[in-house]
Specification:
- The protein is α+β, with helices and mostly antiparallel strands and 308 residues long.
- The protein is built from 10 helices and 13 strands.
């Protein structure tokens, strides 16, 4: 088997192929991230006899003439889409995928000065990337099976917070208001002493694009008409997945545990979906917060090529 890896414009795919792609591979989503981050975006296609065997979307930036593969903030997973494997035996399919992954690994190691990729959870066999000398390390996230979720099964402390009398004064609304997003973000960023990147104009435009494409929804928790927290989720309607995307809570909202209330509301009100993915549980505080929803811990992989 002789495979070739080539670059393919994200707008050059036929609709029939686009329909089969994973959520994180969809051209509209890729274009929105690329525009926001001033990055070049395209697919790396593994081909054999002019037939596409696999597609992996990537984002490229250049610095001092050197090419970097970057993973934009909030673009949580890099997928690899495989094609034409339906009629293969299990053994042949496994080896075929491995050789495709090796073709990608060889190509990206040769072509890019630095590499930073976080693979989708479906990519668990990362041997090919290690074989060519790239660094691979596990990362973790929590997921919830929505049809099995019940707040009555949550830890006692979490249930106590949800049932607190003060919670009865809280209200969750679907609300696209970007002023609320900016105000709560500023409050949070001041508290955590972080940069204000996520309230820049191009960041707001990016969110507007996702809203207009019906890819995301913003939920806001109010108390006496005062917004306390927002939680923006990405909706993969095709595969019935919800991805936690962006969230922030004001100082006052922290006192009421407003984000817990918001997440519980989102899960309970999306029973037509199958999975809620928290998109990361890799720092201690975040991990402990998310784990209280009685969720399952899953791993995915980060691939690096670094020069210091």
């Amino acid at each position: 088997m002789k495979y070739e890896t080539v670059k393919l414009c994200i707008n050059n795919l036929e609709q029939s192929m686009i329909d089969t792609l994973s959520f994180w591979s969809k051209p509209l989503l890729l274009e929105s991230f690329a525009k926001r981050d001033d990055a070049l975006c395209y697919y790396l296609a593994v081909v054999e006899n002019n037939k596409i065997l696999a597609l992996m979307p990537v984002f490229e930036k250049k610095k001092f003439g050197l090419r970097y593969l970057v993973q934009p903030m909030e673009y949580y997973y890099t997928p690899i889409n495989f094609f034409s494997l339906e009629n293969y035996s299990v053994h042949r399919k496994q080896n075929h995928r491995l050789m495709i992954l090796k073709a990608l690994a060889v190509y990206i190691k040769k072509e890019y000065f630095k590499i930073n990729l976080r693979f989708e959870r479906s990519i668990q066999d990362i041997r090919a990337f290690k074989w060519v000398g790239l660094k691979a390390e596990p990362l973790f996230t929590y997921i919830i099976k929505i049809n099995e979720y019940s707040s009555e099964k949550l830890p006692n402390e979490t249930r106590r917070q949800l049932n607190n009398k003060a919670k009865k004064e809280l209200m969750v609304k679907e609300c696209r208001d970007m002023k609320i997003y900016k105000d709560i973000s500023i409050n949070m960023l001041n508290r955590k002493k972080r940069s204000f990147r996520q309230i820049e104009t191009k960041y707001i435009n990016f969110l507007d694009e996702l809203h207009a494409a019906n890819l995301c929804v913003q939920y806001v928790v109010f108390k006496d008409d005062e917004p306390l927290t927002y939680n923006i989720i990405l909706l993969d309607r095709q595969h019935k997945y919800i991805y936690g995307f962006l969230s922030a809570t004001s100082d006052k909202g922290m006192k009421f545990g407003a984000n817990i209330f918001c997440i519980d509301h989102i899960i309970k009100n999306h029973s037509d979906f199958e999975i809620f993915d928290f998109t990361g549980a890799n720092t201690e505080k975040i991990s402990f917060f998310k784990s209280q929803f009685n969720c399952d811990l899953k791993n995915y992989y980060k691939i690096n090529k670094l020069f210091f």
